[in-house]
Amino acid sequence: MTADQVMVGAGLIVVLAVGSQLLASRLRVPALLVLLPVGFVAGALTDTVHPDKLLGGAFSPLVSLAVAVILYEAGLGLELGRLRGDTRRVVVRLLWLGTLITWLSAALFAVPVLNMSRGAAVMLGAILVVSGPTVVGPLLNFVRPAERVQRVLVWEGALIDPVGGILGALVFHAVVAGGIRGFGGRLEQFSASAAVGAIGGAIGAGLLWLLLRRVRLTEELAASAQIAAVVGVAAACDAIREDTGLISAIVMGMAMANLPGLDLPARRPFLDTLVSLVIGLLFVSISATVTPASLRHVVLPSLALAAFLVLVVRPLVALVSTAGTGVSGGERWFIGWMAPRGIVAAATAATFSETLVARGVGGAERILPATFVVIVATVTLYGLTAYPVARWLGVLRPSRSRPLLVGGEPWAVDLGLALRSAGLDVLMWAGAGRQQARIEAAGLPLAPGELLATASGTGAELEGITGVLLLTGRDEFDALAATMLRESVEGPVHRLAPAAGGQGVVAPYTGGETLFRSGLTGPELARRYEAGARVLARRADGAVPAGYEVLFVVRADGRLAPVTRTRVPEVRPGDTAVLLTPPPVPGTR
């Protein structure tokens, strides 16, 4: 291809990748539902987006390094403190029992249905064992299932990808060598590959930990350093032993999430943006390699394979993996209804199928299109049905708000009690020991740890926080905390208004809505409380009494609506109003 053709092809891939993701966000569907058909159509209509022609032999190594970056980012969300008890047992079983059952079942089904040789069928089965965090994560964020279910599926999706990548590489070499008999004896090779990846990941994580601890870096430079470390270590591991870079990437991510002394933000806009772009580029590029001719006799058998995996194999895997644990029936069946295939399956199929075709392995030409069909079918099915299935099984998280109240003043504790009496699951945090004692004496749950780590949900018990209310009354602290927490908390972050006439450095200039009507600042609330005012929750059965201030409205469905400077929520029948009473008139009881 000429330089102009390469330029046009590369630019078109980027535009299609980002445009597909924008369209998917507008349609509120998983991005893969748009990326895969767009790449397929582009590959069918033009040769300019075909990656083999654009990049030649560099395509497969670049895919491996790109997947390593994706897995590193997924590993950053895997904190070992959250994997314990039944959750740990289920994840471990899903990894080894699930891999074996899926691999063997898919291979046995593919031989007669897809008319494949045993070698090609075993290769396809190894490819389809993976799930993938890039698909599972967005689906779970949309569905919001119970915390244990979400944790199990996220861990499985992140860890099974490198396992599937190494398994695929070992099967590939066995098939190329001329036979798959005695493959069980290759466990030693699998262990060696895992060891190379684990050691490389540990070394890379150690060096990266020292760099981030000793050198002050901006967010962009810190993200760039992480990407460089992941790519460098993955490339070195792959050079030593093929496909070990995936394990090194996930090990580095998990290590960085669990090593002490690091304050990695829960949200990483620069890294997240890069990973999103890489995912789009990979799916468009890989799906462009699937031609209409290759699908002609494969679509129906591949759909049958997808149905077999969804309706038989995955439920069986879930039942075996959760047997004898405390996982409920609804959670068990939802785990059995969530195994979409993603980028690692596509990348592995694109990497190995061409060589197997060149070696004359029977049916190898069907590996990539069959994988493509299975990915499209599973993502479409799970994307459209995950929410109604979770609702039917009763594994959705409650829609009620779960606010984190920051501050331990008497009126703030009174507010926490009022919100709890309105039916909300309230969590509180305070820095001073006397304030913590006041919160515990009131019987309210106290979040441990530092404020930023707590509000970011780094502890398992803090998952599900829907917003933060900064109620310390210290204007500068609340303003700085609000600015920092907006990047790491899913829900809104509200703070008290600065004191009237305050000359703070930060507080008067930070954006965002502040709580309560004008003049109701922290010092004013403390003054009224000392004068005898109290905070109470009252059902909306009539007009608000004269002299009472509405602070919050708890909707009938449990959603929390605060009063702000610019917005006063309407109190409707069935709602609960959280009110500040007027101070008692002297001489009255």
User: Approximately how much helix is present in the residues?
Assistant: 55-70%
- Total number of helices: 22
Shape: elongated
In terms of quaternary structure, what is this?
single chain
Q: End-to-end distance, in Å?
A: 90 Å
Regions with little confidence, pLDDT below 50 for 5+ residues: 452-462, 504-509
Rounded mean pLDDT is 81
What is the count of β-strands? Answer: 9
Q: Measured on Cα atoms, how large is the radius of gyration? A: 27 Å
Which structural class do you get from the secondary structure elements? alpha/beta
Record the strand order, biggest sheet: 2-1-3-4-5
Major sheet, described briefly? 5 strands, parallel
Strand content: 5-15%
Summary tags:
589 residues; alpha/beta; five-stranded parallel sheet; 22 helices; elongated
